[in-house]
Amino acid sequence: TGPISIGEPMVVRAIGIRDGLLPSPISTRSYFIGVSHTLPIVSITSDNYNLYSDEGGIMAMGPNANKDYPYKGANFWQEWEVPAYLEIIDPNGYVELSQGFALRIFGAYSRANEAKCFALMARGEYGGEAFKSSVFPSLPFNEYQSLVLRNGASEWNVAKMRDVMITSLAADTTDLDVQAYRPTVLYLNAQYQGVYYFREKLNKHYISQHYGVSPESVNILVGNSTVQTGSNADYKELLQYAKDNDLSKPENYAYMDTQMDIDNYIDFVICEMYCGNTDTGNIKYWMSEEYDGKWRWFFYDVDWAFLTSHVQDDMIADFINPEGNGSGNRFDNTLIRKLLKNDEFRQKFLKRFAYHINVTFNVDRVIQRIDEIEAMIDAEMPMDKQKWGWGTYEKWQRQVQYLRDYASQRPDYVKKHIRDNFGLSASELDALLAG
Questions:
Q1: Whole-prediction pTM value?
Q2: Is 24 left (phi over 0), alpha (psi -120 to 50) or beta?
Q3: Beta strands 284-288 and 218-222: pairing type?
Q4: What is the C-alpha separation between 381 and 379, in angstroms, rounded?
Q5: How far apart are CA 317 and CA 20, in angstroms?
Q6: How far apart are CA 297 and CA 275, in angstroms?
Q7: Using alpha carbons only, what angle is made at residue 198 by residues 160 and 284, rounded to the nearest 5 degrees?
Q8: CA atoms within 13 Å, Cβ hemisphere of 172
Q9: What are the residue ranges in the chain where pLDDT is below 50?
Q10: In the prediction, which pLDDT does 121 show?
């Protein structure tokens, strides 16, 4: 009935109403007055009931939360989905995307953090079957079925770049499946939430898009062959074959080569070992008979890696521990242990390890990538700190420096671990590294 005054960040949702006629569709627009950002703004709007209420708020503790961390039973541990509206606005004010969608909380224990991560799903009933936007400039796609907004998850209050930095290094030199990233700032109902990264969602639609197969042909497993999508029957047969047969024999090794992408698996294991991932339960792998029927691995969620407190850790020994690896030795490592009994695999593994030391995780290259990502988000971090109160801008800079320290110190420790675990002499190691 009159003008709306806007003097600060605000979302305006409006409909046209006239007697005797149906109301118009809802129109949603975000306005950012009095703020300046160097990164794209992601504005998500949903009714406060959907976000914060005890009864239905996906971010709320709710009435059933355990009183101790990680507050199991809380609303944010439920797989609830609420209607929301998304706008992506570049630093010049251009609206890249504006549509309704379905919103969920995303992640594992990071759900218990004050700042949540989010999964975004395109739904026809909310606004469209796909997000029709070239969200990631580095990729050739112009639509996505699902997206993730991630703020560093378990390191949301530390360097806030570990996962994007480490996985992007691997993406440059391997064919491991990793998530593209794009830094942004997030507003939720016009309330600033800090620096987030758009990421691809690692699901059957990701595989379909990247490999040109039907989503229904995709099998994705996590951890010890838990099914995310499809079936684990084929993988269990592969694992049982590895357990029952001597893989040092060429014919048995040749069979394994028909069932899994061995080069892909080698890259996955080495990257996990080198970066010192202390959360090795983040194992995810896929296969599609429409592609070639071989199992391949994702490299993802390495927020607990590149920790200076673990720079000396012998992750090779941990990864091939006969009792299993990871927390409580809970994760099956049959494949790597049995494959290493084969001389051809062992030599290929060691040569590839040398390559990753010299190229993928070359000290200068890693530090350059850290510097690049730091420069992307640097101007936004003082405001991020002010929002969450988890330290000063200078503290964040120190955390980023710790990543550089790890990059500089890790190679010598890893070289020693290779010698210790593979029985190489100093001259043999030097020859290996020299190529």
A1: 0.96
A2: beta
A3: antiparallel
A4: 6
A5: 75
A6: 16
A7: 85
A8: 15
A9: none
A10: 98
At 287, is the secondary structure helix, strand, or coil?
Answer: strand
List, for residues 284-309, the tens digit of each pLDDT value.
Answer: 999 999 999 999 999 999 999 999 99
Amino acid identity of residue 130, one-letter, is A
Q: Cα 362 from chain centroid?
A: 22
- Token pair listed for 358: 């010299």
Packing angle of the helix pair 393-422, 381-388 (nearest 10 deg): 100
In the sheet that holds 296-297, the strands lie side by side as: 226-229, 218-222, 284-288, 296-297
Distance CA 33, CA 36 (A): 8
Which pair of tokens denotes residue 122?
């395109």
- What are 89's strand-pairing partners? 41, 95
Pairing of strands 226-229, 117-121: unpaired
User: Both tokens of residue 349?
Assistant: 């593994």
Reading the block at residue 9, the tokens are 């960040």
> pLDDT of 196-245, one tens digit each?
999 999 999 999 999 999 999 999 999 999 999 999 999 999 999 999 99
Report in angstroms the alpha-carbon separations of 351 from 266, 354, 387, 413: 10, 5, 47, 17
